[in-house]
Design a protein that fits this description.
The protein has 208 residues and is mainly beta. The protein contains 4 helices and 16 strands. The strands form 2 sheets. Strands 2, 4, 5, 6, 7, 8, 11, 12, 13, 14 and 16 form an 11-stranded mixed beta sheet that branches. It has a 5-stranded antiparallel beta sheet with strand order 3-1-9-10-15, with no helix packed on it.
């Protein structure tokens, strides 16, 4: 499950990488992206800003409305559920990433471990997106079972999309896109750090 990732490349470089139209304008967001915060995605051939996480409407014990929670991960085995199915069928996107983080260690003192592709400074994770009343356009990262070294840190990992499959994910049929929802078969590098997991607000969020 991914609740924190890095995207450290400039918008012009990212747009060129994905052959996308750059529409970020004066958007300004940090190199580290957290649930509920803005991030860059490639949707409909355009590099644009959206909020990471679909809003999950919450109610208190007395039925009063609460602040929505960002559902920032979509499990591949749940893509046919009502929460995800229309976005998966009609609105798939690419999420530019330079590394994603997982928490390792003893509860209360977990640290960040960063995972990346050793042969690529930038890669794409599979995403879905939609509009919302709460946050405008928003996106969620698609997760599959972890494999290889990624399984050392978590049972799930993002679906990584190779350049040869960018168009299949964004524009292909749902059946073709579903075939890409498998663990990454290439190499993955792990950088284990002593950074506290909760530093800067990286907290566990929702996965459906």
């Amino acid at each position: 499950m991914c609740n924190l990732y890095r995207m450290t490349k400039g918008k012009d470089e990212v747009a060129a990488w994905f052959e996308a139209i750059e529409a970020l304008g004066g958007a300004n967001f940090g190199d580290e992206v957290y649930p509920g915060y803005p991030g860059a995605v490639v949707a409909e051939g355009i590099l644009r800003q959206m909020t990471w996480g679909f809003p999950l409407v919450m109610k208190g014990k007395q039925g009063q409305p609460l602040k929505p929670k960002p559902v920032n991960n979509a499990r591949t085995d749940k893509l046919d559920s009502f929460f995800w199915k229309f976005s998966f069928a009609e609105r798939r996107c690419l999420i530019p990433v330079t590394a994603w983080a997982e928490a390792e260690g003893v509860k209360g003192s977990k640290t960040r471990s960063w995972l990346s592709l050793p042969d690529s400074e930038l890669f794409a994770c599979a995403g879905v997106w939609r509009g919302s009343d709460e946050w405008g356009n928003c996106y969620s990262m698609v997760m599959t079972d972890a494999a290889g070294v990624a399984a050392q840190v978590h049972t799930r990992m993002p679906v990584i999309v190779g350049p040869e499959n960018y168009a299949v994910w964004t524009d292909g049929s749902p059946e073709a896109a579903r075939e890409l929802c498998v663990p990454w078969a290439g190499e993955i590098a792990i950088d284990r750090t002593d950074q506290p997991w909760t530093k800067g607000g990286a907290v566990q969020q929702n996965l459906l």
